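Lab notebook: predicted structure, single chain.

Context: the supervisor wants predicted structures on file for every construct in the current expression panel, including those that have not yet been purified. This is the next one on the list. No modifications to the sequence; it matches the entry in the shared construct table.
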Amino acid sequence: MSLPHALLGLLSYKPATGYDLKAAFESSINLFWNASLPQIYRTLSQMEKDGWLSFIIKHQEGKPSRKIYQMTDKGKKELQNWLAAPPEVPQAKSSLLVKLFFGNQMNRKDLAANIRKWREHYTEFLKIMDKNILPSAKGFAREVANKDELQFWMMAADYGVRNARMVVDWCDASLAVIEKNTRVKRTKQSRRAID
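Prediction complete. Output recorded below exactly as produced.
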């Protein structure tokens, strides 16, 4: 994923400050890509140098001035090119799965604690999704005055929810094996993948 392209996508809806972009990011793209406010500001600065966006300074009485970014024609073209390009093949990287691979050399309590931590993270993610994502997405759709966007946002959110549920199920099954010290039963799918 490219942070500049995610920011261009958000700016395609309407001009925004870096702070506004961070807020929009947290209620949308943050489901599958994380970025801090300093990363966003550094990236915006580079995007401005690349000619993908411009900004105006809005002075406020009694408050600091705000930079309001908007996409340039060059930025629009860059976003369209990136959207049309084939997606990268995801590279699996998981320190937990590497630890699990060598789990026979670990203290079982430590291994189980690591898996429980993962489970807690994804369980919390699911709670946030249930409570906040649909109202937040509907609110943002109203804000950008484009309700058609909502169906695409919700498809992306659905992927995140399904993935999180799978991870929680996998954590439960793995914890059951570790805690009962039983053998792992391979599913038909995993046998096919390994054989």
